[in-house]
Structure formats: C-alpha cells, structure tokens
Amino acid sequence: MIITIDKTAGFCPGVHRAIHKAEKELEQDNELFSYGSLLHNELEMQRLQADGLRLAEKDDMLLLNHKKLLIRAHGEPPETYMLAKTHGVELIDATCPVVKRLQQKVRRAAEEMKKVKGQILIFGKQNHPEVIGLSGHAMGLATVISSAEDIAALDLSRPVRLFSQTTMDSDHYNAFALFLDEEIRKYQPEPDFISHDSICHHVTKRVPALKKFAANVDVIIFVSGKESSNGKKLFNICLEINPETYFVSKLNELRTAWFEHVNSVGISGAASTPLWLMEDVAAKIKEMN
Ligand code: SF4
What we know:
Helix content is 41%, strand content 18%. The chain is of the alpha/beta class and 289 residues long.
C-alpha cells in the first residue's frame, strides 16, 4: 500500500511563523502567554503548553506586567498594543504579514472614509479574532457582515469600502461583492464603492490542489482538530471528491477496516495540522497493515 502525505497540507506560512516565534521564545524563557490558542489543534497546543505556553484572557493584561504576550497570526486591534504598553507587557508580534498588510489597508481606507462619511464593511465571522483585529483598525467605521441579509441594515447611500477576512471562501465573497454592488447602485447612481479582494492566496490555492490529491488515492485520512473550521471545510471538499474520506484528530481514531483491499492512502490536513501528526498517522497506518 502506498501512503502519501499531501505536500500542500499543514501549517500555512502565518501559523508556521507564529509557532516558530513561540518556540524560539520558549527556548529562552519558560513562560509565554497568548490570548487563546495559536491554532485549532489540541495536540500541537498541548506540545506548546508543555513547553511553557500559557493561555490568557483579554482581562488578564493587568496581571501580565513584565511578562511576554505573543500576538497570534490573526493579529490584534490597536487597543491591545496600547494596553500592553500601559501595563508593561512585552509583546512578541507574530501577526501574519498578510494580515498586517490588510490591517494597514483597512486603516488607510478608514482614514479616507472618515473624510467622506463613508463606511468599512468586513465580510467575515463576527467573533473571529482576525475580524476583531481588522475592525479595531477601522477607527470605529467597520460593520461586520456575513451574508446578503445583513445588507438590509446598512445605509448604502454612503461610500463603501469592502474587505474580506483572509480565510473566507473566494466564490462566496465574489458573489457577495457583486450583489452588494447591485444594491449600492439603487442608492448611488455613480457608486463610490471599492471591493478589496483580501482573501489569502494560500487559502485559495489550497482547494484545487486538495481536490486533485483526493481524486488520486483510494482512501483519504483527513487529520484535523475538531474545532477547526478550515479543517471541516477542507474535509468536506475531500469527501465530495472521494467518498472514502475519513476525519481523525488522534491516532486511536484510525480503523483497520478503512484500509482493507486498498492500494493507496492519502493523508491530508487543515492549515493548523502539524506535519509531525500527519507523519505519525502515516506510521500508524503502516503498522496496522
Ligand atoms: S491563512 Fe494566510 S493570512 Fe491567514 S495566517 Fe495563514 S498565511 Fe496568514
């Protein structure tokens, strides 16, 4: 049986960089804080926590005096940087450079919109940390929207700059931007509307590569944390292409019956799945057969 690990699976560059920064800090110091998980993978988080990573809440800033706080790849609103300064917290900024550039773009657009009483719309998930960070950079002008229904509550006679959370689905975003453009035209004969395609290329490139991978093996083992929305989305894409797709988070979830009379197995995972876990899964499948 041939077992192949999907070369495009595993950490995206932003998550990879954040983990690398955390590991480097933990090598020098045995304590580092972060607001919530660095990624949606329980086993990888357990590994980092065993090395000294501690999870903190936003309200804990007061208690982190002289301690180090890692800013995750999702980024943070400017308020976090100000609070850290006020309370003597050392920040290790692991905001993904793609997200950082987007925050700057949102800020520039907000400055422009402020002058013309315009608005910033962010197409994304309301409580997603990246969206909270982006909204914070919009100087109070942002509204988060996730579907066409949300448009009804907006004043579309005012100028609009539209951005997307970096991990949204490209097709959904494009359809939404098109619909919004049509709606704005009902209120503005010459629309002052710009749609910024801010979806991360790493996310858009991944889907066609995964479809190809899933079509070329008999069985797919998709490895991901159960909480990862990226993992759920990519798993469903595999399942559509290859009905013999199975989701696992841990080695003990593998079943011998999945590999009976099978010639090829592909192992793939979410943007938060560590390579070491996919390698462990490959080794375990070999052992089972
Ligand atoms: S998905 Fe893209 S934007 Fe988001 S952290 Fe990864 S590389 Fe950065």
